[in-house]
Amino acid sequence: MPPCDTEARGLSRIGANTLRMTTVFTQADVVRLYSELTRAGVTLWVDGGWCVAALTGGPQRHHSDMDIAIELSDHAKLQAELSRLGFLHASREGSTEFCYVMRDRGGRKIDIHVVEYDANGAVLRGIAYPHGSLAGMGELAGVAVRCVTPEAIYQFKTAFPPRPKDRQDVSRLAATFGFDIPRSHRG
Asked: So where are the chain's domains?
């Protein structure tokens, strides 16, 4: 995942249901949001820590936000649906039209990564998701979710100096898929 990390609060309810503030994104929150967006016709891929959870059998740590990847062709539809759900653009240093955060009135944040590919799969604009990296499938709470492939999320997680949560995520990916853990991401 490209470096668009933010801290966020969790989603407890989506849409017309009552919203209550939580300190983490729960698995149920992610599944509800993913389901709402896909029902609205938005194609998205779970990225970041929730991608690791989807690929490795569920969450093993707290998650402060939800990272998603979308293609530019779904961007307007995503923004309209998130606006309908009460999300607005949030101010963040380094935000671009392709990497930004939307937040609802309760402070819940979604980190959005936008990419546009050409007919051959080369990135034209946006976040540099390598061709084929948005082809993963995982599962959260029994629900199949599109996500970044194991190889790509492993590369993203090991490309930068690790935080404790990155070490934990890399360890889970290595245990599940047999990847070697770089010295910088051990222990």
From this structure: 27-174
Q: Residue 31: enclosing H or E segment and its boundaries?
A: helix 27-39
Residues 6 or more apart in contact with residue 15 via CB below 8 angstroms: 36, 84, 85
Q: Which residues make Cβ contacts (< 8 Å) with residue 147, sequence separation at least 6?
A: 45, 46, 47, 50, 51, 54, 55, 136, 137, 138, 153
Q: How confident is the model at residue 108 (pLDDT cuts 50, 70, 90)?
A: confident
Cβ atoms of 129 and 138 within 8 Å: the answer is no
pLDDT per residue as tens digits for the range 1-21: 544 433 332 333 334 343 344
Interatomic CA distance for residues 8 and 108, integer angstroms: 6
Residue 156 has phi, psi (to 5 degrees) of -65, -45
- Report, in this order, helix, strand and coil percent for the chain, each rounded to 5: 30, 25, 40
| pLDDT tens-digit readout, 27-81 | 988 999 999 999 999 999 999 999 999 999 999 888 888 999 999 999 999 999 9
Q: Residue 80 has which token pair?
A: 């309209």
CA distance 31 to 38: 10
Assigned architecture for domain 27-174: 2-Layer Sandwich (3.30)
